[in-house]
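Please decode residue identities from the backbone states below.
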């Protein structure tokens, strides 16, 4: 009851900040805050997990917790520019769902697999796999398909590996707006940790595929540090738009390149990182980078004792770690 009262209070506060709020958006805000309040009340991890606008993990089913709601609950301030973006995205998502009602007997069998004989279910899966191979199923169904095939795998021990590959590969380079359809599902709620882990991993692979080639991933197999610095300096806005910078870096290969750097080159890298994360509200933009920054701190600290460095190079690494720790603090909630 306390959780429900808390959710009502927060929802009312948020409604006051939104102009021309429609019923669907109001409902999504309220239900998601109720779910989040219950998670807070039960002692579950409530660290932000999601993209820049919403988190399905902290909400429930088709009602994700919007980031501006989370920020208000945790920080007691509004990020007003996010409200309009979230309202627009959610409205388009709901309209898209309504306009793309897709009738398919095989998918209907999958979505109610617990009502069918196993032989009928296996035939439906075979047909779905064929349709996915030929790219005949609307992408807006992919999130729901992912939800059900994971449940099916663990409930009935059925091989879904080919279907998973098609769900990932078919989305390569497709519209970013599909992310909401991938992450929000009206399917089965997964309380089982093993099921949930695989489902979330599949979601991440699908979103990663969606963003394929949107911005360059730094694997450092064909790029030197000087070229890396130049590339980053000319693309700050792209990293902000696509909500990722450190997460694009292959840390192992990056460290190998750093080991070959002069003191001046390490300074250039430090400046690049400082510029990328200079914004006062950077945690609202690149919050998914924190784990990678923390891993990078750990790896750079190892270079304090690297035999291939002289004391000036080691000093630059110590200063770099200091910079990274400041960035990590800026990314904390």
């Amino acid at each position: 009851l306390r959780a429900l009262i808390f959710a009502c209070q927060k929802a009312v506060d948020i409604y006051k900040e939104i102009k021309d709020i429609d019923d669907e958006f109001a409902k999504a805000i309220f239900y998601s805050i109720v779910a989040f309040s219950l998670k807070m009340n039960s002692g579950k991890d409530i660290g932000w997990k999601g993209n820049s606008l919403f988190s399905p993990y902290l909400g429930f089913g088709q009602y994700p917790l919007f980031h501006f709601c989370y920020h208000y609950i945790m920080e007691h301030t509004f990020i007003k520019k996010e409200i309009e973006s979230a309202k627009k995205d959610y409205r388009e998502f709901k309209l898209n769902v309504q306009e793309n009602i897709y009738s398919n007997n095989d998918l209907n069998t999958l979505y109610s697999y617990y009502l069918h004989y196993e032989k009928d279910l296996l035939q439906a899966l075979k047909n779905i796999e064929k349709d996915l191979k030929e790219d005949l199923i609307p992408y807006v169904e992919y999130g729901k398909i992912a939800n059900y095939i994971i449940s099916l795998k663990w409930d009935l021990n059925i091989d879904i590996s080919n279907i998973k590959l098609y769900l990932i590969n078919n989305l390569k380079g497709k519209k970013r707006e599909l992310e909401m359809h991938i992450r929000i599902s009206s399917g089965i709620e997964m309380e089982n940790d093993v099921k949930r882990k695989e489902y979330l991993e599949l979601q991440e692979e699908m979103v990663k595929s969606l963003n394929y080639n949107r911005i360059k991933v730094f694997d450092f197999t064909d790029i030197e540090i000087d070229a890396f610095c130049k590339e980053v300096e000319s693309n700050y806005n792209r990293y902000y738009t696509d909500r990722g910078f450190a997460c694009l870096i292959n840390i192992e290969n990056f460290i190998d390149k750093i080991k070959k750097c002069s003191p001046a080159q390490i300074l250039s890298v430090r400046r690049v990182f400082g510029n990328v994360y200079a914004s006062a509200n950077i945690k609202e933009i690149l919050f998914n980078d924190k784990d990678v920054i923390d891993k990078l701190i750990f790896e750079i600290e190892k270079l304090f004792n690297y035999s291939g460095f002289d004391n000036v190079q080691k000093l630059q690494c110590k200063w770099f770690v200091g910079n990274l720790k400041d960035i990590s603090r800026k990314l904390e909630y």
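Observation: The beta strands are 54-60, 63-66.
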